[in-house]
Design brief:
SH3_Myosin; single chain; repeat; transmembrane; 43 helices; seven-stranded mixed beta sheet; 22 strands; coiled coil; 49% helix; motor protein
């Protein structure tokens, strides 16, 4: 059964919210039992809890599992120290004996209580360990469809393999200007944090990493889209569109389909977006790293070459490609080795049009690349070689010769030697790879030229999209370089996390102890130090070896191992995992040899803009974007050196080049403030919202997320501000402590009493720091306190119920006794009467014996009747008096409503206006009217300037002077525009001129002489009509001007209200005692600690100010109604959008608080007589969201009720709120996945729009209904205080 309980507001002023909830629960169910969880202390990360924590029945733990990695179980038998096993029950009710050998060690990890599961920050969990992290991510991903989760300073992004409606412009605007911890985790939140920190301090970098298919490219793309939107260029260069246009170009030439990802980036890139002093985008620069050149000549099964080849083949029918000899991709060897030429859901021809459009945005000169791209497809046959030479303009015989021969130079002679077939194929492939690599670098160079600016750069934000740690069955030179890069990035990440922890402790002035964390410097030294793997690899390349011998040199190194069964493999112990590399091909890939004779032939190409340009020395490189003065050492240089013909430069190894470019990248990152995004691939089948725990935990270990958890747990991971701690745990304090005024001292006293070990917490200047598990212990104490209070309330209420029941029984008993005794008395009297009559008849008694009794009863009845009649008469008179008073009040109220604003102020007219006498007065009138201030005419007739202007127009009409009319109206309109431009942020001035412009428009209609506008005119007013001119065109101009002023008025009002809405409507505690408890684990990362917080009363006062200004200035009531309809729509949209993006406000208590706050706004509308404005209707989605948070969410009947109630919310919004719904107290329950699926089934017939958020910038069309004035022109008086002496009375 569903119960609906309505609690008067006044009760909350007396009774604390939690006590009321407990009483409600008790009254609804006498046997209500409140679940209290028991959370115990975990001492250190990486170690199981001490045996004493396992003494309780039904303690939940995590045990290893070969399929699920970790599995939940309950202890069903007390553990005693020395026991060799734990008796457990799995979730499927299976009994399991968990061995402990030796006894007392390797106890399983404790599980977090359900109320903490699903937190948006992993470091906020009470127990910080691998199973807790994995489970929390799984719950958020599968049950709530949340793909983003914070882990300290890291944003963990899980690829949903599905397009989600969470990246639109409305979402960007929702996150813009918000603190990082205020909203649900999102890539836009990280981008906004970087943007704000750049504006406040220094240059920023966003480091996006993850394995192929994890979503790195998409995350980086959305981050750049955010910057392009919020930092749009102030000039007409449209540079932000060019920055975004670089993405499809780089994807076409640098991305390919792999077995793990349909759009895998086969290179790393660092895009540096430059900003000016006003933080508008002025330009960008791109650096690339380690392009996978081998893909040009070889693709594994089910993989493709780079997208551009298939785009060209799909567009082969275009007229401009007729000379290229293009056919379908299956006809070319270099594009058909993978077998599958297509990608599901991808149209290569359509993508090519997008690529061409991007080239157009960046500069049409880039389109000349098209004829040069086909050359890579195949040169294995004479026919293909002829096409190759023809397209590139090189000599056929020379190319044919040097593809099959090589030159050997000795000290004495030069030899030309034929090559074997295998060598010829390798030479051809090497040439194709080099040409593509040079073309790729040439494209990057020209993209940078298109994004280059001469404007001085003030600061920048870099976005690094780079490959994550990789390990395959066969790992070659590419994986070695990739994992080397990840070692460097992980070292930078560890040091940054460690540095932030140290800075936080020092800022809060708490003792700092060194935290031991994994240092991967030995592994990095093994690779890059002198005589490391890269150095020895380069040395062996010089001596022309075919296989490396360095695998035997590092046998004694700690991070180096040799497999027992292989002489060509070696193992490196990376931070993420140990990886076995196959050394075959290492030397060839490191040399990347291309014969100089082939390059010289390409240099001699006769085709302009083709191969010859690619192999010339780069003399016109793009200069570095000028940096800020404070960062002069961060100069953008090409990550790859320009191609030169000199042998030394040309023969620099790939490993050497990569090490240099990586060093340059690390210098840049170390000079910026980094932000980290770790992308996780949840499954290898690319199935939407499927979570493979094995794959996920492998990546969590590899990307450093668990290292972040370990570093956090080693120190003080839980941090509470003193006010938040006081609000949460004041229930544990006694009255004496609560009476103190110093909140900080109260918290310190409480903690010293509750936690005896001083090492478990530290008091900072503004926060309290807790070791892992201490918050869970406090939550247990709080739950115990609530349980004790619950029992006390239950005992008291049950006693009260029993006493009330006893009182009812007692009253009923007394009533029965009274009626029974009365009945017996009446029987006795009747019996006596009958006995007296019989006795008289027999002559034994007298009939006078009962006379006194009868007379007494009759007198009592008459008295009671008289008293009743008097009471009825008095009540009737009272009702008549009240009815008469009510009628008088209603009549007075109706008269007040019917009184127009113009008539109300008609009695304030003082002096009379006269006419304009000459042409100069037109300019004087316009200037004087322009300089009028709202305060100067506040005590006069509303819209007095409009009446003055009309009287001037009427005079010009009277003397039939067309030039004066034109001059006066033109000057007036221009003057108003000038004033509004000058006061574009002044609500009062804008409202003043909106009222006057509308009134002038009404006057021109009312006195136009048109019958449709004269129906309400008096005879006197008809005498003031225009006689000679038709001003219809000017009325249209004034109408357009009114719309512009109205829009400016709305923009000003929205700018004032917008910062107030979230805190006033969603966070303000208007109901005293119903505390909106901060959820455990929802730490804020507020960049501006001093951000203002507004109450609902402050926002209502602001609304009052708007209303009084517009009313005082005589703005039409219909326009005032439209203004507040627009403002209330914005309040609804911003509040609802914020709620849809915040898990911490989606709770039952917030729903009740929100509904009360909305009722306050509705009451304000009623008090201002704005019920008919439609403003209240705009709040309906927010009202339904509040009701949805409060409704029961368990059964099918509940689902039907929600679907029938929430008609103003879309299906996506309903599902989003249900997914976000989070219990903040122990007696609340989570919304199950089955219930949400039930909702979706019930709502599948709806045709809702796809967007999740409301467009808070939407503006309703404005109407200006005709509103004639009751004022006559000859009754208007002009106050002397206005200094309009040039106006004379006619």
């Amino acid at each position: 059964m569903t119960y609906y309980v309505f609690i008067p507001v006044t009760e909350f002023a007396v009774v604390r919210g939690i006590a009321i909830l407990l009483v409600i629960a008790i009254l609804l169910h006498e046997n209500a039992i409140f679940c209290c969880y028991f959370i115990y202390h975990l001492f250190h990360f990486g170690f199981a809890a001490v045996p004493s924590l396992y003494l309780q029945f039904y303690t939940r733990v995590w045990i290893p599992d070969p399929d699920e990695v970790w599995r939940s179980a309950e202890i069903i038998k007390d553990y005693k120290e020395g026991d060799k096993s734990l008796q457990l029950k799995l979730e499927d009710e299976t009994l399991y004996e968990y061995p402990i050998d030796p006894p007392g060690s390797e106890l399983p990890f404790l599980r977090n209580p359900d109320i903490l599961v699903g937190q948006n920050d992993l470091t906020g969990l009470s127990y910080l360990h691998e199973p807790a992290v994995l489970h929390n991510l799984k719950v958020r991903f599968l049950e709530s469809n949340h793909i983003y989760t914070y882990c300290g300073i890291v944003l963990v992004a899980i690829n949903p393999f599905e397009q989600l409606p969470i990246y639109g412009q409305d979402v960007i605007y929702a996150y813009s200007g918000q603190n990082m911890g205020d909203m649900d985790p999102h890539i836009f939140a990280v981008a906004e944090e970087a943007y704000r920190q750049m504006a406040r301090s220094k240059n920023q970098s966003i480091i996006v990493s993850g394995e192929s298919g994890a979503g790195k490219t998409v995350s980086a793309k959305y981050a750049m889209r955010f910057f392009a939107t919020v930092g749009g260029s102030a000039s007409e260069t449209n540079i932000e569109a060019k920055v975004l246009a670089s993405s499809p170009i780089m994807e076409a030439f640098g991305n390919a389909k792999t077995t793990r990802n349909d759009n895998s980036s086969r290179f790393g890139k660092y895009i540096q977006i430059g900003f000016d002093k006003r933080y508008h985008i002025i330009g960008a620069n791109m650096r690339t790293y380690l392009l996978e050149k081998s893909r040009v000549v070889f693709q594994a099964e089910d993989e493709r070459n780079y997208h551009i080849f298939y785009q060209l083949c799909a567009s082969s029918s275009l007229p401009e490609f007729k000379d290229l000899g293009l056919t379908c991709a299956e006809d070319f060897f270099y594009t058909s080795q993978g077998g599958d030429m297509s990608i599901d859901g991808v149209d290569d021809a359509d993508d090519f049009e997008k690529t061409r459009h991007a080239f157009t945005l960046l500069g049409k000169e880039l389109l000349c690349l098209k004829p040069a791209q086909q050359k890579f497809l195949s040169i294995s046959e004479d026919e293909h070689l002829s096409s190759f030479c023809s397209l590139l303009g090189v000599e056929h015989s020379q190319m044919q010769h040097w593809l099959c021969h090589r030159k050997l130079v000795t000290t004495a002679e030069t030899y030309v030697k034929s090559m074997s077939l295998h060598q010829v194929v390798n030479a051809r492939n090497a040439l194709a790879k080099l040409i593509y690599a040079q073309l790729f670098n040439w494209i990057v160079q020209h993209v940078n030229q298109a994004l280059h600016t001469t404007v001085k750069q003030h600061s920048f934000i870099g976005v690094l999209d780079i490959y994550g740690f990789e390990t395959f069955e066969v790992n070659s030179f590419e994986q070695f370089c990739i994992n080397y890069a990840n070692e460097k990035l992980q070292q930078q990440f560890n040091s940054h996390v460690f540095k932030l922890e140290q800075e936080e402790y020092m800022k809060e002035e708490i003792p700092w102890t060194l935290i031991d964390f994994y240092d991967n410097q030995p592994c990095i030294d093994l690779i890059e130090a002198k005589l490391g793997i890269l150095d020895l690899l380069d040395e062996e390349c010089k001596v022309k070896r075919t296989s490396p011998l360095f695998t035997h040199v590092f046998v004694s190194a700690n991070h180096f191992q040799k497999p027992r069964m292989s002489n060509t493999s070696f193992i490196v112990l990376h931070f993420a995992d140990k990886v076995e590399y196959q050394s075959e091909g290492f030397l060839e890939k490191n040399r990347d040899t291309v014969y100089e004779e082939q390059i010289n032939i390409l240099k001699a190409s006769q085709v302009k803009g083709a191969a010859a340009d690619l192999f010339q020395e780069d003399k016109d490189a793009v200069p570095a974007t000028p940096g800020a003065k404070r960062t002069p050492r961060i100069n953008v240089r090409s990550a790859k050196p320009a191609f030169k013909a000199a042998n030394k430069e040309h023969r620099k190894t790939v490993g050497h080049q990569f090490r240099n470019s990586l060093q340059l990248l690390m210098e840049t990152l170390n000079a910026t403030s980094p932000h980290y995004v770790r992308c996780i691939k949840p499954n290898d089948e690319k199935i939407p919202f499927k979570f493979d725990p094995k794959r996920a935990v492998q990546q969590l270990r590899a990307c450093g997320v668990l290292e972040t958890i370990r570093i956090s747990a080693a120190g003080f991971p839980s941090r509470w501000s003193y006010p938040d701690f006081f609000n949460r745990y004041s229930v544990l304090m006694n009255k004496r402590d609560l009476s103190k005024s110093d909140t900080k001292q109260i918290c310190q006293t409480l903690l010293k009493d509750l936690i005896k070990d001083p090492d478990k917490f530290q008091f900072g200047r503004t926060k309290i720091f807790f070791r892992a598990g201490q918050v869970a212990y406090l939550e247990k104490l709080r739950a115990d306190k609530f349980r004790a209070a619950t029992i006390m309330i239950q005992k008291t209420v049950r006693g009260w119920l029993q006493r009330a029941r006893y009182q009812r029984l007692r009253r009923a008993t007394l009533a029965l006794q009274r009626h029974t005794r009365g009945h017996l008395a009446r029987r006795w009297v009747l019996g006596s009467l009958r006995g007296g009559s019989w006795g008289a008849k027999g002559g034994n008694t007298s009939t006078d014996q009962c006379g006194p009794v009868l007379r007494l009863l009759e007198a009592q009845l008459q008295d009671q009747r008289r008293e009743h009649e008097e009471e009825m008469e008095a009540l009737k008179n009272q009702v008549d008096l009240m009815q008469e008073e009510l009628e008088k009040q209603q009549q007075a109220f109706l008269q007040t409503l019917q009184l127009s604003p113009e008539v109300q102020v008609e009695f304030g007219l003082q002096q009379e206006i006269t006419r304009l006498t000459n042409e100069n007065l037109v300019r004087s009138c316009a200037e004087k009217t322009e300089n009028l201030k709202p305060q100067a005419v506040s005590a006069t007739v509303p819209c007095l300037p409009a009446y003055i202007l009309y009287m001037c127009i009427r005079h010009a009409d009277y003397i039939n002077d067309d030039q004066k009319v034109h001059s006066l109206l033109t000057s007036t309109i221009n003057g108003v525009k000038k004033v509004l431009k000058k006061h574009q942020d002044d609500f009062e001035m804008t409202s003043f001129w909106l009222a006057n412009t509308c009134r002038l428009l009404h006057c021109l209609k009312q006195y136009s002489g048109e019958e449709c506008f004269m129906t309400q005119n008096t005879a006197k007013q008809n005498e003031h009509c225009l006689k000679n001119f038709d001003l219809t065109e000017y009325r249209q101009v004034l109408g357009h001007l009114s719309i512009q002023i109205y829009q400016q008025l709305i923009n000003i009002a929205e700018g004032i209200l917008q910062p107030m809405i979230v805190s006033a409507v969603l966070e303000n505690e208007s109901i005293q005692g119903l505390s909106i408890v901060k959820l455990v684990g929802y730490r804020k990362y507020s960049s501006n600690a001093g951000d203002s917080s507004y109450s609902l009363d402050e926002m209502i006062r602001q609304l009052n100010t708007f209303h009084s200004i517009m009313c005082d200035q005589g703005l039409d009531p219909e326009i005032i109604q439209q203004v507040f309809k627009q403002l209330f729509y914005m309040i609804n949209a911003i509040a609802l959008n914020n709620l849809l993006l915040r898990k911490d406000v989606c709770s039952w208590s917030t729903g009740m608080q929100l509904r009360f706050n909305i009722s306050q706004l509705e009451e304000w509308l009623h008090g201002k007589n704005l019920q008919q404005s439609g403003a209240a209707q705009t709040l309906e989605p927010l009202i339904q969201a509040a009701q949805l948070l409060q409704l029961k969410k368990k059964t099918s009947e509940d689902a039907e009720a929600i679907c029938s109630l929430c008609t103003s919310l879309t299906t996506q919004q309903i599902v989003k709120i249900l997914n976000l719904y989070t219990p903040v107290n122990e007696f609340e329950e989570r919304v199950t996945v089955a219930f949400i699926r039930n909702i979706q089934v019930n709502l599948k017939e709806r045709n809702d729009p796809p967007q999740l958020l409301l467009d808070f910038k939407h503006m309703f069309p404005v109407l200006f209904p005709f509103n004639p004035s009751a004022i006559t022109m000859d009754s208007i008086h002009l106050p002397a205080s206005l200094n309009l002496d040039f106006l004379n009375k006619v």
